Amino acid sequence: MSATPLPIAVLASGEGTNLQALLDAQRESRLPITVVGVFGDKPAARALERARRCGVVAEAIEPRAYSDRASYDEALFARVASVAPGLVVCAGYMRLISAAIVEHWVGRMINIHPSLLPKYQGLRTHQRALAAGDREHGASVHFATPELDGGPVVSRVVVEVREHDTPEALAHRLLPHEHRLLLATIALIARRYVTATPLGITIDGRLLHEPLTLAPDDYLYDAAGFVA
Ligand code: GRF
Questions:
Q1: Secondary element (H or E) of residue 11
Q2: Is 225 exposed, middle or buried (0-12, 13-18, 19+ CB in 10 A)?
Q3: In ligand 1, which atom is closest to the CA atom of 94?
Q4: Which strands form 200-203's sheet, in the order they lie side by side?
Q5: Whose CA is nearest to atom 10 of ligand 1?
Q6: Residue of the CA atom closest to atom 9 of ligand 1
Q7: What is the number of the ligand 1 atom nearest to the C-alpha of 174?
Q8: What is the pLDDT of residue 215?
Q9: Which helix (H) or strand (E) holds 75?
Q10: Which of 21, 46, 179, 182 has the least CB density, counted as fewest CB within 10 Å?
């Protein structure tokens, strides 16, 4: 793989299956990235264990040791900065991040969210999609801004909602598609096809007016995985 690897820091609070997809792709040279650190708020998070097993720096910084969100985020992001990432990936990081910190990383931090944004920012997205009677659901990758799940959307993947779906079944069916979406999107960012500029997201130098949509059955982790 010719491109210089993009150093990535991952923020995660839970299972870390998205992180695992990144680590696997790196190991198998499917993505020009190096995961340089994994950070979170929960010492017992499986994500940290997954990172350590791959020899990646993994640290939990516990919120209760800090008096407020701002000082917690400063400590957390000082650790993030210490591994010098070119991109910060929030992959199941379940805490709000203070606006000042997000501003500092703007254009260099993305989040994967399990809904077709701008629908269902925040929690319980699968349940809300089912309650609304949506026929389609999905996941989005967006650049982070101070508004929770509100930054410009780069890409998304759509799955059908089935009759008798439960939030759990829908989440379970969506998750492997999230992994593909995250990898495909990071491939575009790592190869500098996609960048966040003050005017908006650009792809190959042109402004992106609609999010890229990952083709349903395309398992390529590069630009070819998206349809217009
Ligand atoms: C995913 O659905 C992600 O979109 C959401 O939290 C879940 C995390 O999954 N933000 P994992 O920890 O990567 O397994």
A1: strand 6-11
A2: buried
A3: 10
A4: 194-197, 200-203, 206-207
A5: 92
A6: 92
A7: 2
A8: 80
A9: helix 69-82
A10: 46
The ligand 1 site (C-beta within 6 Å) comprises 12, 14-18, 47, 91-92, 112-114, 139, 178
Task: Write the DSSP symbol of residue 161.
Answer: P
Low-confidence ranges of the chain (pLDDT < 70): 1-3, 216-228
Give the position, in ligand 1's atom list, of the atom nearest the Cα of 19. Answer: 13
pLDDT of residue 34: 98
**3-class secondary-structure state, position 130:** helix
For residue 218, the model assigns a pLDDT of 56
Residue nearest to atom 6 of ligand 1 (CA): 92
In tens, the pLDDT along 126-165 reads 999 999 999 999 999 999 999 999 999 999 999 999 999 9
pLDDT for 226: 59
Is residue 209 among the annotated active site residues?
no
- Side by side, the strands of the sheet bearing 109-113 are 58-60, 33-40, 6-11, 87-90, 109-113, 136-143, 153-160, 212-214, 226-227
Task: List beta partners, residue 90.
Answer: 11, 111
